[in-house]
């Protein structure tokens, strides 16, 4: 997990030119690691804490709807 405002792998240290790494960006919403509390890294993607929370809300609603239709 990548925490916000921590210098580290994948974050742009402010240097430009050769060797500068691009900032870590959420693959779902496009926010940078500087705009969120944390990022979860996958093999080729990142997801921020905000998108994870949104996903949990969506899944809860979907599960609730499925449970109500099964009765």
Structural account:
The chain is of the alpha+beta class and 71 residues long. It has one domain. 31% of the residues lie in helices and 13% in strands. The protein has one helix and three strands, in the order E-E-E-H. Strands 1-2-3 form a three-stranded antiparallel beta sheet. Strand 2 and strand 3 form a beta hairpin. The protein is elongated. The N and C termini lie far apart (40 Å). 10% of the residues are buried.
Keywords:
elongated, alpha+beta, 31% helix, three-stranded antiparallel β-sheet, 71 residues, 13% strand, 1 helix
Produce the secondary structure layout.
Elements: E1 2-3, E2 38-41, E3 46-48, H1 49-70
Antiparallel strand pairs: 1-2, 2-3
Give a nutshell description of this structure.
By secondary structure, the chain is an alpha+beta fold. It has one helix at 49-70, and strands at 2-3, 38-41, 46-48.
Run of helices and strands: EEEH
Mean pLDDT: 83
Give the strand content. 5-15%
* Largest sheet strand order: 1-2-3
Radius of gyration: 16 Å
Total domains: 1
* Number of distinct beta strands: 3
Helix content: 25-40%
Q: Give the count of helical stretches.
A: 1
Give the distance, in angstroms, between the N- and C-terminal Cα atoms. 40 Å
**Low-pLDDT stretches:** 6-13
Give the oligomeric state of the chains in this entry, treating copies of one chain as homo and distinct chains as hetero: single chain
Question: Largest sheet, described in full?
Answer: 3 strands, antiparallel
State the secondary-structure class.
alpha+beta
